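User: I've been going back and forth on whether these two constructs are worth ordering. Before I decide, could you fold them both?

Assistant: Sure. I'll take them in the order you sent them. The first construct and its structure tokens:
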Amino acid sequence: MKKSLMLYLFILAILMNVFTYAFYSGEVKFAQNRYDKTTKKLRDSINIVKTQLAEADYFSLEHNENAQNYFDNSASGGKVILYEKLIPVVTEKLLDFNANPKGNPYTGQDQIGPTKFIINKVKILNHRWIIADYSNGELWGEVLLKYFVDNDDNITFEVNQTWLYQK
């Protein structure tokens, strides 16, 4: 009787070990599969975001080599203007006009009511064009500007088109 009890306990222990091993090895495979699927999904998401970012930045001075080359006048004895330094200077110069008491003149809008129009966001598209977002707190619009950099590094702007959205 004692031998058969020991035999049953031994068989039970072996079965528990087999089932425990099967359970944990299956759990490891499941976790690895889940990790692989999550990693693949994240890589796909990152690639989609990279593609969207590349599409969004297609029209930007930072990614337009032809527009960057426009500022390299070294072949004709001129000077080189580094676009990396030009972008913040042009943006800052344009935003400095927001301090004008009548509003930024490069919004293309006259003051309506007590609040003035100021430029909020600027995107330099290439060596000649800027698109900007402006508002007076109630009305919003966009403006397409031309900008010029002369030999003395003076920057001038010219409103090409402006659009004020309806309320």
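The second construct, handled the same way:
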Amino acid sequence: MREVYFIKQNKEKWLGIEQVIQGKIKKNPDDLSSLYINLINDLSFAQSYYPKSNTTVYLNHLSSQIFQKIYKTKRVEENRLVYFFRTEVPLLVYQYRRYLMYAFLFFILFTSIGVLSGIYDKGFANIILGEGYVNETIENIKKGNAVGVYQSGSTWGSTIGIIFNNIGVGAKLYIYGIAGGVGTLYALLSNSVMLGSFQYFFYDYGALKDSARGIWLHGVFEIFAMVLEAMCGLILGASILFPKTFSRFNSFKTGFKDSFKIFLSTIPFTICAGIIEGYVTRHALKMPLVVNLSIIITSLAIIGFYYFVYPSVVYKRTNTNTHDAIL
């Protein structure tokens, strides 16, 4: 069958499914299941005969949307907050997983720019980090206390200030996405270049190991959350720039709703990062190295598993359950 005829034959049905997804047409669970089966058949046909076509991309997107609609109509017996973190967020992360990849690629690129700028311009750290901070840190390094800057102020006062500051940075990374994602990339560029120049600064003064023992105690959660917040900004921007078959406003509503849920999921990690930075990082060089590494590796395992591995596990589990329920 020619693709043009295939589209013409099914166009009205697909537009009707869009109306269901947008909530303009109400369907009971049985009708939703029938729509899903029908759409999966269309997708399978398109993947077989038009694998590189925009039609296949469109049907794949539509299938994921109607799948979520079906799953959300099921009665949720567990606590709403538990459901949010255990099922809803992982499914959204899986759906938008390519944006997580984009965010990490930009993060690596921008951080590398910070490192290279530090290598070729010895005064770059002063510009990015501030002359006062640089001079203070150099003095601390000479005293053998590379993380001395984290030891000032009270623990609880520092913790509260750090948490609010980090949430503010994350909110900017996310909300700036409303400018088509450009604002998010600019905010990510600023923070990533700062991180790159910051780490090279310590390397240049022979204190990279000591700084890493302290900085990455809280940095794993903080930096990973920053990348996730950039991911949310990119989702928001893409929903405006690429509405596909939806109206731009409806696409934005969906993009905002989904990205905001992912953004909210980063808040606990941001809070944990603030607590670690306020209470633990100041003692970094007094700890046995094995304790530092244990905290860093455990933090990386937790957040890495939740956003990289667990979404796939949840998607496969719910997909199997939904198909069993349909059959």
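Notes on the second construct follow. The CA atoms of residues 110 and 192 lie 5 Å apart. Confidence is low (pLDDT under 50) at residues 322-327.
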